[in-house]
Design brief:
By secondary structure, the chain is α+β, with helices and mostly antiparallel strands. The protein contains three helices and four strands. A hairpin with a 4-residue loop joins β2 and β3. The longest helix is centred in the last third of the chain and has 30 residues. It is elongated, with a radius of gyration of 17 Å.
Length: 140
Amino acid sequence: MTEKFKILGRYIKDMSSETKDPETYIFVKDNISKYQLNININSKALKNKMVEVNTIMKFEDKEDNRLKSFFELNHATIIQVDENVQDKKELEKIIVCDTQIKIYPELEKSFLDLLHNSGYPNIKFEKKIDFERLYKQKSN
C-alpha cells in the first residue's frame, strides 16, 4: 500500500508547564501518578491539498484538588494529502490515525522532556496509544 499523505513539516506550536509555588510542586510530586494523559486532535485545511494537524497533549489532575500543575504541548504537523484521496472518512483516518502513528514517538519524547524538565524526572507513559483502535471505536 502506498502512502496517501506526506509529512511536509512538524513543530512545537505551543508548550506550557505551570506549577505555581513550592507547596503545589511537593503536592503534585506526591500525587502525579493520578494525573491522566489526554490527547485532542484537530485540523485545518490549507491550500494545495495540505492540512495542518494539531495534536494537543495534556497531562492533568482530573480530581478536585486545590493544588495542581498544568502540562500541555501543542504539536503541529503539516501534511500533504495525495490527490486520489477524495473520501471524507479516508481523510479523517489519515488525520486522526495514520499521521498520529508516524509522529507519536517524537511527540511522546517532547512531552516527556517537558515533564522531566519541569521537575518530574520519573514520569513514564507505560501504555502506548493505539490510534488504530481509537479510530475504529470512534468510527463505529
